[in-house]
Amino acid sequence: MSATSHGALMDQVYRRQRHIYDVTRKYYLLGRDRLIADLAPGPGDAVLEIGVGTGRNLIKAAQRYPNTPLYGIDISREMLDTAAQKIDRHGLDDRARIAEADATDFSPVALFDQESFARVYFSYTLSMIPDWRAALDQALRVTAPEGRLLIADFGQQEGLPGWTRSVLRWWLSLFHVDPQADLVDGAREIAARHGDRAVTFTPRYRGYCWSIEIGPIAR
């Protein structure tokens, strides 16, 4: 799927959903606040969110880390419009910058005049990107050598009853969400190509959520 067609699809899916997204998703996008807490950037460290959505996570990060410059990209103009409004309402225009971009191929210099980021994260977005491997590869390209990349996304619900998994998969498919069974193996393969970065995998909530961290380049 081309970036243009995927962006149009996401606009179609979230044109109306974006207005109720934060209210509804808080009940099943588990682990997002834990991810934000785990970012722990140092003073002045730049942070990038890939798939900024409504801006919810950037705003939470801004509130938790008041001295951190924040950036975000999304392929959906509809979502970016909502995010921009929320960032403005919270008075964060000077600290949180967002732009339209394809997660698999973007230039942080062209978008933000920023070469790399100390922290990069995906919060329930890799499962919505058709070529998620390319997105992860690109994310590591823009992660500083001493930086960390963090992921929170749907797991395989390995500790939950079969009927629960079936219902959840059906529900997620309505929004073109496709949790990847080989996400961890893929992360390890891609991390190895980027300076042999270490990968830490933590399943949470009986496998409902998978947390992955890709650490600094080994010295």
Rg is 16 Å
Q: Give the biggest beta sheet.
A: 7 strands, mixed
Would you tell me the overall average pLDDT?
A: 88
How many DSSP-defined strands? 7
Oligomer: single chain
State the strand order across the main sheet.
Answer: 3-2-1-4-5-7-6
Walkthrough of the structure:
The chain is of the alpha/beta class and 219 residues long. The chain is 40% helix and 21% strand. It has nine helices and seven strands; from the N terminus they run αααβαβαβαβαβααββ. It has helices spanning 3-17, 21-25, 32-39, 56-64, 77-89, 108-112, 132-141, 162-173, 183-192; strands at 47-50, 70-74, 96-100, 117-123, 143-154, 199-204, 209-214. A hairpin with a 4-residue loop joins strand 6 (199-204) and strand 7 (209-214). The longest helix has 15 residues, at 3-17. The model has no long low-confidence stretch (mean pLDDT 88).
Describe, in short, the structure shown.
This protein is of the alpha/beta class. It has 9 helices and 7 strands; from the N terminus they run αααβαβαβαβαβααββ.
Brief descriptors of the model:
40% helix; 219 residues; 7-stranded mixed sheet
Topology:
Blueprint: H1 3-17, H2 21-25, H3 32-39, E1 47-50, H4 56-64, E2 70-74, H5 77-89, E3 96-100, H6 108-112, E4 117-123, H7 132-141, E5 143-154, H8 162-173, H9 183-192, E6 199-204, E7 209-214
Parallel strand pairs: 1-2, 1-4, 2-3, 4-5
Antiparallel strand pairs: 5-7, 6-7
